[in-house]
Every structure is written in structure tokens, then in C-alpha cells.
Amino acid sequence: MREVGGREEGQKMLARSISRRGFLALPVGLYFAGRAARAQEFAGGDSWPQFRGNPALTGFSRSGLADSLRVLWTYEAGDSVESSAAIVGGVVYVGSQKGDLVALDLGSGRERWKYGAGSPIGESSPAVGGGAVYVGDLGGTVHAVSARDGKRLWAFKTGGEVKASPVVSAGKVLVGSYDQHLYCLAARGGNVLWKLKTDGAVHCTAAVVGGVAYISGCDERLRAVRVADGRQVFQLSSGAYTGASPAIMAGNAFYGTFNNDVLGINLVTRRVGWRYTNPERQFPFYSSAGAVDARVVVGGRDKAVHCLDARNGARHWAFNTQARVDSSPALAAGRVFVGSNDGRLYALDFFSGDKAQEFNLGGPVSASPAVAAGRVVVGTQDGRVYCLG
Length: 389
What we know:
This protein has 389 residues and is mainly β. Helices cover 4% and strands 41% of the residues. The chain has one domain: 7 Propeller (Methylamine Dehydrogenase, Chain H), CATH 2.130.10.10.
């Protein structure tokens, strides 16, 4: 399947400031507009400090990358890696089902330290801030360890599994638990500053923009919560169970559901602006979306990667893999990097969806790629961490 109307027509469509459905104006061509300008546009992308790379969960990196990537090193984690890596200061931080949080040298893959959580680390991905690394485990504990040497700083026990990834904001750590709460913990000390009760497990990672946290819940609701005091600003119905985390771009939220659709929500009008469903196959969207340049890219359990117009949900292109795509796409250097349960990591052209490269990594790839400092890092379910550059 190809992009509708080609790149020129697509750019004209994206240049319209407001869609007919009343979406907020979305910036177009800021980062992917011209290949010649890429080196300058992507300067400064040296870190990927949390799940999806930034608090808005857009999955976008300004890092420059080689036109053709190759595997630089691998690390044997000893068990499945479904946690997505963080990259800060030339160090990779990633968890595994073995229960280890490890720090690896980005240049060589050499292990710097290893911290034993005591329970498996599932999909919870490390967040790095203020000299500490935060991660949750399937035993329900949130851990804070020193980024320098891996020594425990504090641990906080919730009442359920922690599959959500922590987010660091203004001296606070936000993290959800399967005990149906969103917790706000002090980054120093780990004491509870507030907690918000929901009507279902908090599986997603909170997106934080403008002092407000957004969670797309297993209780079929999108909630907006003030980070300062935990007060709920609003909630609206998603119409379905949601495992994905919301990506926030230009006042809009984007996420998929188990009702086989992707939603675009205007956070000002607090209304669903559009719903996208694959016209060929009906399967859930578990992958969290990437968003930049008025486009939304998301993987589906229909075995495909979809690129949508952020203003109206129209499909630009779709790329078929050989298995479901739970991995969340990373967007960098004019490409889409995404894993599939077919054991491959794909690099796709952001504009057309054409395959630029693919890498057979052996085991299913449900973790999401991290992109920083000219490197792409991702783990696999057969227990390996790969670095490409």
C-alpha cells in the first residue's frame, strides 16, 4: 500500500492549518521537510531519557543517523527484554524479565553496573533524571537507583504489578500500577505526594505537557490530571479498553484501543475528533503512537504499521509485517524504526512507508526502539539488547 497522492499532495494536505473536524493547528515540515537539512534539524538528539523519548510521548528524536545502519554490538540480558531502553550521557539503561536493571556503555555495550530488582521487569521502561534511574517491576515495586553506580536510593511498593513506565516531572515521579492508581512520588525519597484512583489498571505511561498528566486507561477513559496536586481536570470516554499510552502533539492526544481503532482527541474541546480503523483487517492497537509533522505512526495487531494524518485520521500509508506490531515506533532522521513479533526491526521511510532496511534480530521485538546520539537501541524477547548505528 502506498501513500495517497504522493509526497507533494501529502504536504499540501498537511499545510492546511485547521482540519474540517476542528482540530488545533498542527506544525508541518518542521523536522522532516527536507533531506538536505537533516543534519542541522536533528542536531542535539543526544538523549532518550524515558519511554517514548520525552514527556509528551511523541517517540521523536532529533538525532542524526547513518543512511545505512549496521549492528554495532549486542548484550545478553539472560531473559526477555520487553522494557524499552533509556539513553542518557552515553549510557543505555534497560530492564529484563530476569529482574535486572542494567547500565551499558553506548559505545561498546560493556556492562557498567547491574541492579537486581527482586522481581521481573516487564514493559516498564527506565526513566532517567536528576542522577537517578526509575523503573517498576511485576512485583509492584517502583525502584530508584543511582545512575552512577546502580545503588538503591529508595523503593516504593504499590498494590499491583507495575507495567507502566515512570515519568520524571518537576521533582516528581509519576507511575501507574495495576492496583488502579496513578501515583505521584517525590523523586527524592519516594514518599507519596498524591495518588489518583481510577476504575481499572493503569497500564499506560502518563504523558505530561504543561503541568498536566494524561493517562489513557484500562477503564476506557482518557484522564487529565494536574501534576501539582493530583486534581483531575477532566475525563472523557475512549469507548474501549486501552493499553497504549497517549502521544500529545499541538494540543491533541493520539492513542489506539482494543476496539480496533486509533483516536485523535482535541484536548481543548475535550472531544474525539476522529477514529481510524483499518478497512482491511480489524485488530487491536496496543502499540503507542509516534507523532511529528502532523502525522501519527502506530503499530497494530493487524501486523501492520500505519501512518495517519493527525488532523483527520486519513491514512497516508501502511506497511505490512509478518506478525503483530506491539512495538511503539521511534521517529528520527526521516525514518520510522519499529519492531515486530516476526523478529525483525524495520526502518521505513517516514513519507512513503517504503522499507529502507530490516534487521532479523531472532526473537520477537515488542520493546520500542530508543534513538539518541546516532544510535538505535532495542531489546528482544530472546534476551538480547541490540545497538545499531
